[in-house]
Amino acid sequence: MTIPSLRVYLDHNATTPVDPAVREAMLPFLAGDFGNASSIHSPGQEARAAVETAREQVAALIAAKPQEIVFTSGGTESDNHAIFGSLLSSTSSPSFASVTSGAPPHLITSAIEHEAVLNSFQELERRGAAVTYLRVHRDGLLDLSELRDALRPETALISFMHANNELGVIQPLAEIAKIAREKKMCFHTDAVQSAGKIPVDVNELGVDLLSLSAHKFYGPKGVGALFVRSGTKLRQFLFGGHHQRGFRPGTENVPGIVGMGKAAEIAHQLLAGDARRISTLRDRLEHGLLARVPDARVNASGAPRTPNTSNISFAGIEGEALVIALDLRGIAVSTGAACSSGAVEPSHVLTAIGLSASEARSSIRFSLGRGTTEAEIDSVLRAVPEAVAQLRQLSPAYRREAAAR
After folding, report:
1. Counting CB atoms within 10 angstroms of each CB, which of 73, 142, 216, 248 has the fewest?
2. Is 137 exposed, middle or buried (0-12, 13-18, 19+ CB in 10 A)?
3. For residue 173, what are the contacts with CB-CB under 8 A and spacing of at least 6?
4. Nearest CA to 79 among 198, 193, 244, 230?
5. For 168-187, what is each residue's pLDDT tens digit?
6. Could you give the residue numbers annotated as active site?
7. Which backbone phi and psi does 110 adopt, to 5 degrees?
8. For 246-313, what is the HEC assignment?
9. What residues contact residue 374 under an 8 Å CB cut-off, 6+ apart?
């Protein structure tokens, strides 16, 4: 089977196409306007002005102050800077072996975080910190009573993602923030999968630190941002010059930052309309697949979710086989996070919500975007049942189970 020239792209949680207006905004800074934003001559100051405009645009997307935005290389760096930088500010020990109380610093996160957060916490454990990984319910939501029970006098940081990259489940950050304020703890959130899809207001959410990545909302890859609330203690994560008020040294990626700013501006303008249209298409997709494919189930369907994300288990098939079968039909989907592609183990997110290893491996993530059309959804509704049926014919275990029913 040859791969069709026309493709349906439903993997927007992995990355989004660069918006044409974003590309146009970046082009001058890849050509004639190449100045270093730290230079005091005119080309440098033109670059500096463009960076500061982008800072204002990104700040507006999340209702922050421009001076609270630090540009980074992406969501992973933002997460690392928030986690390591906040903990560095609470202890002078490079090994994090002790704090003023004499006990190791304690940190809390969830079992369904992105690997940029989970691996950072695991590294801090190796350096002597104590970490609690909270469970989630079957719907992917945290139990706030368990969060309260996990708190200790030495708890220095909590970090919970706003929206999950595989399920789209939205955590109750404002309620979590109240707990953090009561205990005077630093609160970080990875908002990489929520910004540009749902309203993100750092004041309503009450977070101290928030991570963003441009390529998740139609900006370029390799650029992100970290919101640092005024007054939040945060040590620098990298060492070098005095760029960005000392928070993040290194020559700014002016074209990328300009692109992120423009993408944030567009996302802010289109947010409500995009969410309504995309959620309608997402619901059409889910209802259509459940009606056409026996033994299919939407994971975490009862929880609040981002409007574009649907994670569906198809009993009796391997998710990676279905991804390949759909790719041959011109449809791009995924089994989960792009950074985990090729992993032998089933998704840690899906097993954390109670799915068995086989159920997790039979799950597919459909993530819609600004360019998704009704015709494309109809195409998927024709292709998926056909592909699942063919794969199930190759599964003796599924045929036996079906016959027994």
Report:
1. 73
2. middle
3. 160, 162, 189, 205, 206, 207
4. 193
5. 999 999 999 999 999 999 99
6. 339
7. -115, 165
8. HCCCCCCCHHHHHHHHHHHHHHHHHHHHHHHHHHHHHHHHHHHHHHHCCCEEECCCCCCECCCEEEEE
9. 281, 284
Which residue, chain included where needed, has tokens 């001559």? 41
Smallest CA-to-CA distance from 258 within 15, 27, 68 is with 27
Structure tokens at 52: 């500061």
Chain position carrying tokens 């500010």: 89
**Is there a contact between 186 and 154 (Cβ–Cβ < 8 Å)?**
no
What letter would DSSP give residue 169? B
Say which residue the tokens 């990875």 belong to. Answer: 190
Q: Of 59, 49, 12, 11, which Cα lies nearest the Cα of 28?
A: 49
Query: Distance between CA atoms of 10 and 332, rounded to whole angstroms?
Result: 6
Please write the tens of the pLDDT for every residue from 335-379.
975 555 555 689 999 999 999 999 999 999 999 999 999 999 999
pLDDT value at residue 143: 95
* Structural domains of the chain sorted by starting position, each given as residue range(s) with its CATH number in brackets: 8-16+271-404 (3.90.1150.10), 20-266 (3.40.640.10)
Residue 364 CA, distance from chain mean position: 17
Instruction: Spell out the long-range contacts of 267-273 with Cβ–Cβ below 8 A and sequence spacing 24 or more.
Output: 267/61, 267/195, 267/196, 267/217, 267/218, 268/57, 268/60, 268/61, 270/370, 271/196, 271/197, 271/198, 271/199
Distance of CA 94 to the CA centre of its chain: 29
Cα dihedral sign for 43, 49, 54, 59?
Answer: positive
The H-or-E segment that residue 380 falls in is: helix 374-393
Give the CA dihedral 212, 216, 220, 225, nearest 10 degrees. 0
Closest CA to 213 of 204, 205, 222: 222
CB 136 within 8 A of CB 161: no
Q: How many CB atoms lie within 10 A of CB 40?
A: 8
Residues with Cβ within 8 Å of 62's Cβ and at least 6 positions away in sequence, in order, are 191, 195, 200, 201, 202, 210, 212, 227
**Distance between CA atoms of residues 159 and 106, nearest Å:** 12
DSSP string covering 7-47, please?
Answer: -EE-BTTT--PPPHHHHHHHGGGGTT----TT--SHHHHHH
263-300 pLDDT, tens digit per residue, is 999 999 999 999 999 999 999 999 999 999 999 999 99
Q: Is the Cβ–Cβ distance between 215 and 369 less than 8 Å?
A: no
Mean pLDDT of the 45-52 span? 92
Residues contacting 111, CB < 8 A, separation 6+: 133, 134, 135, 136, 348, 352
